[in-house]
Here is the input.
Amino acid sequence: MKTPVVILNFKTYLEASGENALKLAKMLESAADESGIQMMAVPQACDIYRIKEETSIPVLSQHIDNISPGSHTGSTLLNALMDNGIDGSLLNHSEKRLTLADIQEINQKLKDNDLISCICTNNVETSVAAASFNPDIVAIEPPQLIGTGISVSQAEPEVVKGTVDKVKAVNKDVKVLCGAGISTGEDMRSAIDLGAEGVLLASGIVKAKDPRNALIDLVSKL
Ligand code: G3P
Here is the structure.
C-alpha cells in the first residue's frame, strides 16, 4: 500500500449518504488524482456498489460481522461485500466495536481474501493487541476526540507516537494511522512527523463547505 494514505470514513452523515456518497467519492478520487496521494473511501454498505461502479477509488467497508452465510438478518456478510467490490474493511471502529475474538477472525478472513484490513483502536494497549493479528493497518483514534475538531496529532501526540513505537516493535510491517479531529494540513503534517503513515478522518472533510478543497488542504504540507 502506498503511503501516506488518507482514509475517509463517510460514517452515516447525510452529506455522505446515497447520491451524496457518490459525489463525495468522486471528489476524493479527483483530489487523489490531483495530489498524487493515496486516498480511500469508507462509505456505508448500501453505497459501496455504485461507488465501485462509477469511480476507481479504493473502497473499504465500515464493518463486517463475524458470521457465515445463512440466517443472520440485519448482519453484514463479508461474501456480499466482496461481491460488491470492496478492497478491504475497517474493523472495530469505536462506533462499532467487536470482541477480540471477532477482530482476530475477521482480520484473518480479510487476509485470506487479499483484502485490506484496518483495525481501529482506542489507545496504545489495544493497538499493540491489534498489531499482533498482523493487519495491514492499525488506526489509533482516541474516542473522546472523535468528531470534536480537536486533532489527536496536536492534542495527544504522545498517543500517536506511543502507538507507532509499540506497534512497530510488535510488527514493523503494520502501518499505523491516526484519527480523531483531523481536518487541516497542519494536523496531517504533525501526524506524519510523529511517525504515522496516514490519517483516518471524517467530519473535517465530510462536513466541510467544499470537501475537495479540504482534501487538497489536508495533504498540502506533505
Ligand atoms: O473514523 C474516523 C473517525 O472516527 C474520526 O472522526 O470526525 O473526528 O474525523 P472525525
